[in-house]
Specification:
Strand content: 15-25%
Structural class: alpha+beta
């Protein structure tokens, strides 16, 4: 495949890097798995191996919220303080829509005081209760926020009176037939064929899978595989929620982000994508119904930028389009 040849010319993969890669283009498929789930004695990575999705999780949270809106349990204009009245008064100006499209201005929990002990989503509520401002007036501009999506996950649980993992499993994962994917509560959940994160130290691969804020759920706690993500895309594009999620934010300074999805136009065609990054793991989910392409990439390797693959694909498509246009 031309793109795959182009990709491997442009992108340098570390010789110790493990990953799973899937690329589909108009009927042609390229698949590659390489490396180990954990240490040298562990099993090989497969297309059923589950990686922490990191921020790719956000599209599942957004889908869950939009589903609640479509079912009449929330609206885009619902104020956060209507759900959590004990939060500071400024939350009355933060609406569900602001959380979804990163225009809330909410404080970044990763700047909070902390120890090495892992924090939970509920700890973020305590953090927010002790804040007294936003970075800017809600709705004024775009600023990517992990805190916002943790809060959205908590809102799902609060509004439905269900545990977040149970809601996501029954209302999203099961309906998409994603049988191996899970919301991971670190130390409690059994993750099937789990790929553990790695970093490089002294030119050696070291398992480094967790740090103080890698046990949160709403901003990145779902684990999934190449095979399940293919099922997710096939399911997602058939839903009414997907149409809502593609609506870009209206803040004015940045309109690529919809609701848990990034939407770009390449040579007149729509491409949907989201990347994820956390310690020891990088992820990318990308597809285009217009172009009949799908690119999925999961690596349990820290020293890599998954978004690079998106950029290389866009560069390739633009070159191909230019060649065809000038033919």
């Amino acid at each position: 495949m031309k793109f795959i040849d182009y990709l491997y010319q442009k992108v340098s993969f570390h010789p110790l890097q493990s990953y799973a890669l899937f690329y589909y283009q108009d009927g042609d498929i390229f698949e590659k798995c390489i490396g180990k789930l954990s240490d040298e004695l562990s099993d090989e990575i497969t297309f059923n191996s589950n990686f922490r999705l990191a921020s790719v999780t956000k599209q599942f949270i957004a889908f869950g919220i939009v589903k609640l809106i479509n079912n009449g349990l929330l609206t885009y204009e619902t104020s956060v303080i209507d759900i959590y009245p004990d939060l500071p008064l400024y939350f009355k100006d933060i609406k569900i829509k602001h959380l979804l499209n990163h225009t809330s201005g909410i404080m970044d929990y990763e700047n909070m005081e902390h120890t090495d002990k892992q924090i939970s989503d509920e700890d973020i509520l305590i953090f927010l209760k002790n804040t007294n401002k936003t970075y800017f007036i809600p709705g004024e501009r775009y600023q990517y926020s992990n805190t916002a999506y943790i809060l959205l996950g908590l809102i799902i649980s609060k509004v439905t009176n269900r545990e977040l993992d149970e809601y996501i499993k029954t209302e999203i994962l099961d309906k998409a037939k994603m049988s191996n994917s899970v919301v991971n509560y670190e130390g409690k959940t059994n993750v099937f064929e789990r790929a553990y994160g790695h970093i490089i130290e002294n030119e050696k691969l070291i398992v480094k899978d967790q740090y103080w804020c890698s046990a949160t759920i709403g901003d990145g706690g779902i684990y999934s595989s190449i095979n399940d993500l293919k099922k997710w895309i096939k399911y997602l594009i058939t839903t009414n929620e997907f149409l809502e999620m593609k609506k870009p934010n209206i803040a004015g300074n940045y309109n690529e982000y919809g609701l848990g999805l990034r939407i770009i136009n390449v040579c007149g065609s729509e491409i949907i994508y989201h990347s994820g990054s956390t310690i020891g793991t990088k992820t990318l989910l990308l597809f285009s119904s217009d172009l009949k392409i799908c690119l999925l990439f999961l690596t349990n390797f820290n020293d890599f930028n998954g978004t690079t693959l998106k950029e290389v694909l866009v560069e390739y498509l633009e070159k191909e389009h230019s060649l065809w246009k000038n033919y």
